Structure formats: structure tokens, C-alpha cells
């Protein structure tokens, strides 16, 4: 089942709490793009997009879009004070060098060791990896926002990814409509429950061992 | 032709493109792709092209129409998800696609324009598709892939203001791969919104020095409708 708008917003609201003043932030397509809506007004961050801008602002008013000022999803954005534009080489230089403090992105599967698969389902859609590999390997913190299970109800948090990897051991935190889980020493650690979900439900729909954070004991 | 007046018309800019040429096009989802040059190449009827571009555009945006009209046999890109026709042609065996991670693609093009043979990177080292047919070297105890430089017969780039010597500036996120590609082809033609006499651009603002550019073409503007419109 795909997530409803309320669940998507709830995940984005929770993900926004991972963003703190002073951070350089890169947001993926989909739920991650909703995150800025939930940042407190006094949060001082610079949003980077890999198509070549550091300092993305809010969506422009209808009719005032600049077709040459877009985010990586191709949607018109605005620029904040101090924004800069650069070519794709320099854009990925900042990503690989580790200057992105946090990236928030979607995933198809995440393993208990933090392996990320988010670019390809063999035999089905082959969209290409875009900039996902650099972001997953290069960002200081990788937060995955996704549905807890896939459209057929199969777990997306798994013991080991069956889909081709974007990058190994890169994920730090996973936020789903059911729960927030971190990855610690090769295990999923349940940190929070969302949406009134039950611990048993999270364990049942996760295809790997789930350790309960001390908060639950 | 004087190096101080490289202004040419569209037909002259694409005159030597032929079947099987290797072409680079700037642009990211069509933003910063040169619309008039792409249209002229489409109308010229050349086919069996190898195209290097960040992505496959959308069916009617950017380089998308070149794929839709079956002019491309091989595409080197980081992403084709926004152009379902490219995906279908790839599945049907009509279009060969080499995927390169976006930053690696950019650096391979940069290397091509910088007289280098390739780059070393650990991006994609955990992915079989990326590692396929590539050598690995150990450097300071860590493995790196050898990624070969990319060059082209022609680069077609989109600029904001060009001067008659071929110095180029770009406009916001329309810059993307354009400056890298401008340097990486044997022959580079830039389509510009505005062309000014040499000397009118502030030298500090020039992004691509004219030495990389063979010809400057007046853009006729974007005729496609953007996906978000």
C-alpha cells in the first residue's frame, strides 16, 4: 500500500527534527521534499540540490516561477540570501567531500547493517542511480524515509538487501509510518513508535532482529 | 572566421554532425539543454548517435525527442526515469544505456576536458553494475574504481550570455554539466540567450573561457512546455 498524505506528512515532520541549525542539507524526491514545511522558522540551514544550487528557498508563487531555477526533481524553487550556483562537478565535489551534513532520501530496502538499495528493481523499472550513490556514500548522516513495507506488504527493513545496493553501510536512521529505527552495531534499534503502532507490529513487519531502545524497557 | 567573431547560424553549428557522431548535451531534466540546437539536429535526420547527457530528459523536453525519434543508439547518463520512452527502448534492446553515477559522470567529462585519462573514485564500489568491466586499484589501503574520461565529437551547450569570442556565462541551475562539456569535446557550439560584443562581459563573471568554444549560436528559446507547468 502506498502511504496517504497524512502519513507522508507525519514522516516528513519527524524527519525535520533531525535537521538542526547550521546544517547543510540535501533532500531527495518525494517525502523528503516535504521536510522544509516542518522546519521551525528560526532554523538556519542551507539546502543543497545536486543540480547545482546551495541555498534553496521556498516554492515560488504560481506564475512567478523561474524555469531555470529548479531543484533536482525539476520543480521551480527560489533562492535564499547567500545562495550560489555551480556546475555538476563542483556540486558532487561538496557531496563526496562530506560537506553535506544530512541527506534525507527514500529507499526500496535497508538492511540491518545500513546497506541501502534505492535505485533499481531488476527486471522492472531501471531509472538509473542519478546522484544517489554519492549522497549515500558522502553525506555525514543518511536518513531514510519510506513506507515500512512495500506495496505487496513485504518488509523493506531486511536482514540483507536482495536488490542491488546503492551503497553499503551508509544508513544511520530510518523513519517509516510505524516507527523510527536507528542502525547500531549491525542491528535495527527501535527508537520511537509513530501513528499509535504497536511494538509487536513493527517487529512482525521487519525482516530482521529489532532491538528495543532503553526507552521501551 | 575571426576568433573574435565566432557567431554562426544553427545550420553551420550542426553541419558536420553525422550518423554515429558522439555528442554531449548539457542539461538536467531539460533545464540547461540547448533547445534550438537539439531541434536542428533532430530536423537534420542524423541517427545512430552516441549521446552523453546527465539524463534522458522528458519525452518532449531536453534531449528526450532525440530518443523518442530513435536517433540515439547509445546513451551515457546517470538517470533515464523521467523519459519512459528511453526505458522502453532500453528494455526492447533498441537503446544501449551506460549508467554512470551523476558525480562520476560529471568528473569523467571534466577529465575529458582536462586532458586526463580518467579518475579514481570509490563511488559505486558496492554496486555490481557500476563495477562491471572496470579495473580497481588500491591506494593508501583503499580500493578505487578507474573511471575512464569521456570525450565527444561535439558538445552542444546552453549558455546565458555569450560574447563573440565564445566566452560564456550561465543562468542559475541551467549551468549543470554545460561548462564541463564545453571543454570535453573536439568541437563545442554554445547556444546563448544573448550574444554581446567581445569585451562586454565582466572577465570575472566568465565561467567558460572562449578558447573552448568554436561557435556561438543565437537561441530561439525553449518551445517545450515544462513538466511542472
UniProtKB/TrEMBL annotation, chain A:
It comes from the Bacteria. Keywords: Transferase. SMART domains: CoA_trans (SM00882). GO terms for molecular function: CoA-transferase activity. InterPro entries: 3-oxoacid_CoA-transf_B, CoA_trans_fam_I, NagB/RpiA_transferase-like. The keyword Transferase applies. Belongs to the 3-oxoacid CoA-transferase subunit B family. NCBIfam families: pcaJ_scoB_fam (TIGR02428). This is CoA-transferase. It comes from Bacillus nakamurai.
TrEMBL record, chain B:
Pfam families: CoA_trans. It comes from the Bacteria. InterPro entries: 3-oxoacid_CoA-transf_A, CoA_trans_fam_I, NagB/RpiA_transferase-like. Keywords: Transferase. One of its GO terms (molecular function) is CoA-transferase activity. Gene3D superfamilies: Glutaconate Coenzyme A-transferase (3.40.1080.10). This is CoA-transferase.
